[in-house]
Write a structure and sequence with these properties.
347 residues, alpha+beta, Immunoglobulin-like, 5-stranded antiparallel beta sheet, 4-stranded antiparallel beta sheet, 9 helices
Length: 347
């Protein structure tokens, strides 16, 4: 099956307008210095454009401290800037006293995405950082020297060699970033979870921007984008049939008016004990999904019924009840609950 960008080259151009990748370093003399901006560097000297990059908190976070956070995000004017940093070996002569040639280079990777696409950001910034580090960890000191060589008034043969090497490194780095973006979104869109509202929101955003998303791998043989819908009623019968084979079943749902809570009774409808089962309840508002309840059941015995109680959010009628097997992140049950209709049925 043809990929997203391979299938429609124009889509790639559209996407590049919305995804930026910044590869930066902290130079001891120049401070925060962009080594490469993908896809275009036309605005690298624009203070407004670079403002969220210059003041991103990733600069002030030690590498060892970011492990607990994985990455640091900043939201600015409809975009989220996801930042990671790492250290690489260096052999270049430093410009500040007290720094040895062996002092590592501090490299920062920032991926910028519209908030509508930020669902893809966690994995993209992780993959981008890993691939860039793996492929260029021994070349960053040469890349920094390239920028110093460009500023030299007299271009000696050594300086020219440094410039040529830097041009090659930048070209290779840009090619790698382009490949990561292409492959990542090609794969992410083809394998998107159509039960995820956030994924559907992202797919809708891409479609509105002119990117072809009809190449999603179909679940039931139908690959049209119209099937990527929120609570598509036409799928309800198939969903109920599949639910018959699920290990878990919802036995009863009750609304407690006094405490404004919802009670959901679920049974392990098998003869086997289930372990590490995560139960979530999300509410849906303006096509966005927010988690209001999450509980992990370490041991769920055969035919055991468990009661889950969650608050009802004022003026919110639609909720999603989800059961996930933690060990493999597999969704075992997804059920839409409409409070308004439930009240009518119970009355």
């Amino acid at each position: 099956m043809a990929g997203l960008f391979k299938d429609k080259p124009a889509g790639k151009e559209i996407f590049e307008e919305h995804c930026y990748v910044y590869v930066l370093c902290f130079d001891e003399a120049k401070g925060h210095m962009p080594l490469l901006i993908y896809p275009s560097e036309v605005y690298k000297d624009d203070k407004h454009f670079m403002r969220p990059i210059k003041y991103h908190p990733i600069w002030f976070l030690k590498v060892k401290d970011q492990d607990a956070l994985d990455h640091v995000d900043v939201e600015y004017k409809g975009y989220t800037f996801l930042g990671k940093k790492f250290l690489t070996a260096s052999t270049r002569k430093k410009k500040r006293a007290g720094l040895e040639e062996e002092t590592p280079e501090t490299i920062v990777i920032i991926v910028s995405l519209p908030n509508d696409l930020v669902i893809f950001g966690d994995e993209l910034v992780r993959l981008m950082t890993q691939e860039i580090n793996d492929n260029f960890k021994d070349k960053f000191s040469d890349l920094i020297e390239y920028f110093d060589a460009k500023d030299e008034i007299i271009k000696t043969p050594k300086v020219k060699a440094q410039i040529d090497a830097g041009i090659k490194i930048r070209a290779d780095l840009r090619e790698l970033i382009d490949k990561i973006n292409t492959d990542f979104f090609d794969n992410a869109i083809k394998h998107s979870d159509r039960l995820s509202i956030k994924k559907q929101k992202a797919l809708s955003f891409l479609a509105l921007k002119g990117i072809k998303v009809s190449s999603i791998n179909p679940i039931d043989g139908d690959s049209t984008f119209s099937d990527v819908g929120l609570f598509n009623a036409s799928k309800s019968e198939k969903t109920e049939i599949l639910a018959m084979n699920n290990p878990f079943k919802i036995v009863d749902i009750n609304i407690i008016e006094d405490s404004n809570e919802i009670e959901i009774i679920v049974v392990n409808d098998t003869k086997e004990e289930k372990t590490n089962i995560n139960v979530k309840i999300n509410h849906v508002e303006d096509f966005f999904e927010k988690e209001i309840f999450s509980e992990t059941v370490e041991e769920w015995y055969p035919e055991e019924e468990i009661l889950f109680i969650s608050p009802i959010i004022p003026h919110i009628n639609e909720y999603i009840f989800i059961i996930i097997e933690v060990n493999n992140s597999k969704k075992l049950l997804t059920k839409k609950i409409d409070i308004k209709n439930l009240k009518k049925i119970k009355s």
